[in-house]
Structure formats: structure tokens, C-alpha cells
Amino acid sequence: MNTGPLHFVRLYTTRSRAIGRGQNLADRYVRLENALREKQALRTNIDSLRDESIHQQETQAAAPKKGNTFRGLIVPEKPAEPASDECCMSGCAICVYDLYEESLDAYKEKVTALRNQLTTMAVPATEWPESIRGEEKKPAKSPMLNALEELERKIAEKQKQSASS
After folding, report:
1. Among 40, 134, 148, 154, which is least packed, fewest CB within 10 Å?
2. How far apart are the C-alpha atoms of 94 and 105, rounded to whole Å?
3. Gap between the Cα atoms of 107 and 37, Å rounded
4. Distance between CA atoms of 101 and 96, rounded to whole angstroms?
5. Boundaries of each Oxidoreductase-like domain copy (predicted)?
6. What does the alpha-carbon distance between residue 65 and residue 13 come to, in Å, rounded to a whole number?
């Protein structure tokens, strides 16, 4: 037999415990039903907003911008050079200057194709948009781009040396 102190079971009569024990189930059902309806309404709103944004993106992508066509042909826009604060100069695998160079090459290819089409259509070069007229002298690469490429070469050499040793 246990001769230690007796433990009495305390009946919880405080207000906080009483709320959790006995509830009107009809009220609880109404609260749950309202919560489910609100969640369904939110889902419906989210779905409709998603559909609207997809529709807007499709219409923007499908319709060419005004002023970007010449004689029914789309005139490509020259890509913007990245700002100096967009590059971290750490030799990333995917650098903004590399991406810029790729987009610039794609732009040049599109301009060449457009020039060829205009030539076959017998459109005089004087009527062409200024952005695609004859080859002007090529501007040299920016000093920043040259410095970045040099840094990337040095980093690659260091990595090769550390891998070989």
C-alpha cells in the first residue's frame, strides 16, 4: 500500500476549461460552415485573378507593341546593357554580361534577317528604320565588360591550377 500523501483530483470549474468541454454543436457547425464558405470564396478569387493575369500575359505577348513594325515586319528592339550594379563581379556561372552578349547576338541575327527581307522586298535603305539601317562602325566593348572577361579568365585559370595540383 502506498502510505504517501494523497492526491486529490481537482474538478476544473474555471471558465476557460468549461468553454472547451461543453459547446452548442449547432453554433459550432455554423462557425465551421462559414469558415469553409470563406475559404471557398478565397479560392474562387485566387483562381479568377490567376486566370485574368494569364489572359493579360497572353494578350500582351500576342500583340506586338505599336511602332515595332515596318511594312508588316517586326523590328527587333536592341537589348539594354546591364547596369553596373547588376553584376557582382564574382565570376558567376550565369553572368548578366554573358546574358547580355547572347541577347545582343540574337538581336544582330534578327536585324540581319530583317535587312535581307527588306532587300528582297526592294525597299530602299533610306526608308528603313534608323535602328536597322546599314552597318555603322562597331563600338568597342565597354571597358567594364573587358575587365569582367579578364577576371573570369583569371578565375578559370586558378580553378584549373587548383584542380590539377
Report:
1. 134
2. 16
3. 52
4. 9
5. 69-114
6. 73
Taking CA atoms, 115 is separated from 64, 111, 124, in Å, by: 19, 6, 11
CA distance 137 to 141: 12
C-alpha cell at 90: 564574382
Residue 88: which of 98, 100, 96, 99 has the closest Cα?
96
**Residue 63: Cβ within 10 Å count:** 8
Q: Give DSSP secondary structure letters for 56-80.
A: HHHHHHHSPPTT-EETTEEPPPPPP
Q: pTM for the complete prediction?
A: 0.45
Q: Inter-axis angle of helices 143-164 and 96-120, to 10 degrees?
A: 120
**Domains of the chain, residue spans:** 15-62, 69-164
In tens, the pLDDT along 2-57 reads 555 555 555 555 555 555 567 778 888 888 898 889 989 888 888 888 888 887 87
